[in-house]
């Protein structure tokens, strides 16, 4: 069956069964291998992609469910340059083996897009991916640095310059 997808801003046509998991379409048909297979049951999050801006586990999502959706994979998250989350991951040396990190970056990017300053509780509740290496402390530090930067930027945008300042 011919299925039309929008992946990373590009129209792509694939010939797959309607119930094929999106993960395997992304990896095997589109050759975008940054999205990883972890558990196959939607529990670990290694396969996380954005569907219309929301994090979704692609290993349990049939391709037919995303025909009219905007799909973003890890390859599309930085649009040619590192995203803020990717840069924070490097700065805080988050990855150990790195296998699960594309899924974490996708989940955290979606969270920060909807809530630029999440609490640690919100982070733990809304990002449920699993890292077998246990780099959670570094991930939390990376997200905290991004939240602090967002809060500083928000404060700077709402601050007013007193009359005569800068003269």
CATH class value: Alpha Beta
The computed structural class is alpha+beta
The total beta strand count reads: 5
* Full CATH superfamily name: Beta-grasp domain
Structure overview:
With 167 residues, the chain is of the alpha+beta class. The model has no long low-confidence stretch (mean pLDDT 91). α3 (84-91) packs across α6. The protein is built from 6 helices and 5 strands; from the N terminus they run ββαβββααααα. It has one domain: Roll (Ubiquitin-like (UB roll)), CATH 3.10.20. The longest helix has 23 residues, at 136-158. It has helices at 22-29, 74-77, 84-91, 101-114, 120-126, 136-158; strands spanning 2-7, 10-15, 48-51, 54-57, 70-72. The chain starts with a strand and ends in a 9-residue tail after the last helix. It is 38% helix and 14% strand.
List the helices and strands and how they pair.
Blueprint lengths: L1 E6 L2 E6 L6 H8 L18 E4 L2 E4 L12 E3 L1 H4 L6 H8 L9 H14 L5 H7 L9 H23 L9
Parallel strand pairs: 1-5
Antiparallel strand pairs: 1-2, 3-4, 3-5
């Amino acid at each position: 069956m011919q299925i039309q997808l929008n992946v990373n801003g590009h129209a792509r046509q694939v010939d797959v069964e309607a119930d094929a998991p999106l993960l395997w379409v992304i990896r095997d048909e589109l050759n975008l291998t940054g999205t990883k297979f972890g558990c196959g049951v939607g529990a670990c999050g290694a396969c996380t992609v954005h569907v219309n801006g929301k994090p979704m586990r692609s290993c349990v999502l049939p391709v037919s469910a995303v025909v009219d959706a905007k799909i973003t994979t890890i390859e599309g998250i930085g649009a040619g340059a590192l995203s803020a989350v990717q840069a924070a991951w490097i700065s805080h040396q988050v990855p150990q083996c790195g296998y699960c990190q594309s899924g974490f970056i996708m989940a955290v990017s979606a969270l920060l897009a909807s809530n630029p300053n999440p609490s640690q509780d919100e982070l733990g509740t809304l990002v449920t991916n699993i890292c077998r290496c246990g780099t959670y402390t570094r991930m939390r530090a990376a997200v905290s640095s991004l939240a602090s930067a967002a809060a500083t930027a928000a404060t700077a945008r709402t601050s007013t310059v007193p009359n005569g300042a800068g003269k």
